[in-house]
Design brief:
Elements: H1 3-19, E1 26-31, E2 34-40, H2 43-46, H3 53-65, E3 74-79, H4 83-92, E4 96-101, H5 114-117, E5 127-130, H6 134-148
Helix pairs in contact: 1-6
Length: 149
């Protein structure tokens, strides 16, 4: 499968969040061309500000593999990870991060200090790919906030 196909799967997770009144962010973790974990935002449902899609998917992947490191895995996230999720991704030593829409307000890469220094908040060996299915991911977020206002 291609990055677009896995991002489409992450968008299905984001739609679950949307349908439950959560900010629509979804994530899937892939190893050896198989989805090993999924997650979507559940901060309202769980009354937990750390229940982001990435955190839920990471915990599921760690439990599935029985390991705290994911150097052979790729995470597909519909929206750029926040600083909290970037920290978790850093410590997981995940091999690759692929995300859709940028988040200039809360994202970990598209805001200072990272835009000023060019540094990455992720593990030095982690490959980052941005903008996969950007329009679809951004539109879901925009639609969610239009409905809330």
């Amino acid at each position: 499968m291609t990055d677009d196909k896995y991002m489409a799967m992450a968008l299905l997770e984001a739609q679950k969040a949307f349908d439950e009144g959560e900010i629509p962010v979804g994530a899937v973790i892939v190893m050896q061309n198989k989805i090993i974990a999924r997650g979507y935002n559940q901060t309202e449902k769980l009354n937990d500000p750390t229940a982001h899609a990435e955190m839920i998917a990471l915990t599921s992947a760690f439990n599935f593999l029985g390991s705290k490191y994911l150097p052979e895995a790729t995470i597909y996230i519909t929206v750029e990870p926040c600083l909290m999720c970037a920290g978790a991704l850093y410590w997981s030593k995940i091999g690759r991060i692929v995300y859709g829409a940028t988040d200039e307000k809360n994202g970990s890469i598209s805001r200072p200090p990272f835009t000023q220094t060019g540094l990455s908040p992720f593990h030095p060996k982690t490959i980052v790919v941005a903008g996969i299915m950007n329009e679809e991911a951004a539109e879901l977020i925009k639609r969610f906030f239009r409905m809330r206002r």
